Amino acid sequence: MIDSQFKVWLKTDTRIGVGVADSLNAYVDAKGCDRVAVILDSGPKTNSHVQGLVKSLAAAVDQLQVVETSEIEPTYAYLDEFRGHFDPDLDLLVGIGGGSTLDLTKAVSVLVTNPKPAIAYRGFDLIKTPGIPVVAIPTTAGTGSEVTPNAVFTDSQEKRKLGINTELYVPVLALLDPNFVASCPRSVAASSGMDALVHSVESFASKGATPASRVFSREAFRLVLRNLPVVLERPDDLEAWMAMQFGAYLAGAGLMNGGGGLTGALSYPLGVHFKVPHGVAGGIFLKLVSRHNVDRGAYVYGGLADLLGEEVPPDEAGRALAVCDALDEITVFAGMPRLSELGVSEKDLDALAEETFQLSGAIEQNPVEITTADVRGIMESAY
Ligand SMILES: [Fe+2]
Known about the structure:
By secondary structure, this protein is α/β, with parallel strands linked by helices. It folds into two domains: 13-181, Rossmann fold; 186-382, Up-down Bundle (Dehydroquinate synthase-like, alpha domain). The protein is built from 14 helices and eleven strands. The protein has a six-stranded parallel β-sheet with strand order 1-11-6-4-2-3, with helices on both faces. Strands 5-10-7 form a three-stranded mixed β-sheet. α6 (186-205) runs antiparallel to α7 (211-233) and α6 (186-205) packs parallel to α8 (238-258). The radius of gyration is 20 Å and the shape is globular. The structure holds fe (ii) ion. Fe (ii) ion binds at residues 195, 198-199, 264, 278, 282.
């Protein structure tokens, strides 16, 4: 029964399928864009489809600037240095890359018209002046950055990861072309795919979930759970990649419409202090947080059980546990490590748990109440 108000929020014109990236030139032409800049992730720059797109864009516009980045999970210092390459008179900014490159592109698009140091805009809705329109062409399937109003950056001085969040840089156009993701390395496919799975499961179980967000989350869960193992086994399977891209997109839509939970929060201190990639950290904790919640009565996870493609128990608890079992399985398949393999020592766990607990926005959305001791316990299980 739908018994309260809710909103549905999606701002991006999104196109999905083999060859959709070719529509960029028609878009540029229709919008009359003469001066365009590309922010290009140096990882996939050797992909022939990426090269072909940049070449044809150069032929289609008066002036094309291409700036490369190899920064993974950038800092505010890097952002301030990097923004200097760009001029506010640009008609369009195109980000081609993984989540970090897309986040960087989104932030740059508004920093060119908002002159204070980037850190001054850290937080939510502090950007007041619109920037350059953004087109997002992801080369990984997972972060959902192509549709969300979030971009994450690290403050290396305060040792904290909190981004610039604003609706003003949400991409006007996202082109999800499987040819652009099929060449991504296996480790990146695994970590970004697990990130999408985290978004789908956490947004489904979140206290902030709505009837609309759950539609996104459920289909995202189904697509990612089925297709992540396929792309890891057969990286040239474009159909499976396309399903992953659609799944990651829907997971992003689920997250921004329904909220997250403890797994997302756990990834931030690990990223800041131990450089653990966001998707890997999420991949380590998703199964542990889900089981922790189910063991404390959050049977909401059972609402995903019919998507497992197998016989599941009829009772609520059994269905929720079947989802946890599936999460255990895919975590192993994706090769997620243990914390002890990532340079974290046992004596770090107290401080990490304390820092995670400070991220109250995400923790409050967890379906059961969480204490610092719970966070410490979950970290210990991951060790
Ligand atoms: Fe994430």
